[in-house]
Write a structure and sequence with these properties.
By secondary structure, the chain is of the alpha/beta class. The chain is 33% helix and 21% strand. The protein folds into two domains: 188 residues, P-loop containing nucleotide triphosphate hydrolases (Rossmann fold, 3-Layer(aba) Sandwich), CATH 3.40.50.300; 106 residues, GMP Synthetase, Chain A, domain 3.
């Protein structure tokens, strides 16, 4: 290329930046809501119950000159008994600490060191307003520190604050830890401050390739998303007890393009016989409602008609052992 043909600095195309970013924090702080808001669609289920997210979920944000691949992680929490003294732990009934709890926290911890940037979410109200509020807060900040990755802090749910001045002591408390490069007050639900957070992430990512096509919002298999839509309805339509003992397994996923139909057979695993009647409901009405509402979400995602067949199966104690987790698909067999 001749000298006068060389591209000036102003004419050079902008640097394309890409990378992986974890969303971490305690349960129910709004990680999945932020992921869905950033992506612009529902790729992770959200409910008002803690521990809704059980596995790492990738959501892909396409920016003008970059690509952010978010990893939404399960809420980091102490499993039953972990905050007790050694004497109290030994006095517990065997198996009290669920393998599922340990699996979820391990998923979150692993993500911290596998990404370019960590984003810690805390709540502007309630628990988590200080990094040393209790053992769970300290567990999260210790894990952030051990990861050695650049970390941003997002103080979520600012829409619930009666006065903006209440943010100042929260910001100061987290600044004093020295863990965070920048702090962002946001409302993931109302899309306040989210763009500023995305800009800050974008500017810190390394130069890199486009990892996923521009029309791709998540790398989750369709079967996994379908299972999550069903589990979401179980959470929304039953009490506080049933959801934590529930897992959804897709037995069959049959695409029939000539009929513009997808036929799905799924089983909802529960741990006790007494839960079966609650889940099915009088004359099967609750299970029918769960299937009907889940089918609407699935049809929106697949853009076609869906036949959904749901069954309920008792698998005693599946959440309390690694073998049980493998049997319902949470760990590799």
């Amino acid at each position: 290329m001749k000298k006068n043909e060389q591209m000036s600095e102003d004419q050079k195309p902008p640097t394309f930046r890409s990378g992986f970013v974890s969303l971490v924090g305690r349960p129910n702080v709004g990680k999945s809501t932020l992921l869905n808001q950033a992506v612009g669609d529902v790729v992770a289920i959200t409910t008002n119950l803690p521990q809704t997210t059980r596995t790492r979920i990738r959501g892909i944000v396409h920016r003008p000159h970059g690509q952010i691949v978010f990893l939404d992680t399960p809420g980091m929490h102490l499993a039953p008994g972990e905050s007790m003294s050694e004497h109290q732990r030994q006095a517990q009934m065997p198996g009290k600490t669920r393998a599922l709890n340990k699996y979820m926290v391990a998923e979150a911890r692993a993500a911290l060191s596998e990404v370019d940037i960590n984003v810690l979410l805390v709540e502007a109200t309630g628990r988590g307003r200080r990094p040393d509020h209790d053992p769970e807060d300290r567990m999260v900040t210790d894990a952030i520190r051990q990861s050695g990755r650049p970390t941003l802090l997002a103080i979520n749910k600012i829409d619930l604050l009666a006065q903006k001045e209440l943010l100042l002591p929260i910001i100061q408390a987290y600044q004093e830890t020295g863990l965070f490069e920048e702090i962002f007050p946001i409302s993931a639900l109302q899309d306040k401050g989210v763009d500023r957070l995305l800009d800050a992430i974008d500017s810190r990512l390394p130069e890199g390739p486009r990892y996923f096509p521009e029309d791709m919002m998540t790398d989750q298999p369709e079967k996994q998303i379908v299972a999550e839509f069903i589990r979401e309805q179980v959470i929304l339509q039953t009490g506080d007890e049933i959801p934590f003992s529930t897992a959804v397994e897709i037995l069959s996923f049959e695409d029939l393009p000539e009929r513009k139909l997808v036929r799905i057979y799924a089983v909802i695993h529960i741990e006790r016989k007494s839960q079966k009647g609650i889940l099915i409901g009088k004359q099967g009405q609750r299970l029918k409602s769960i299937g009907s509402q889940a089918r609407k979400s699935i049809e929106r995602m697949l853009a076609c008609r869906v036949y959904l067949d749901l069954r309920v199966k008792v698998k005693a104690g599946w959440s309390r052992s690694s073998a049980g987790l493998r049997s319902v698909g949470y760990e590799k067999k």
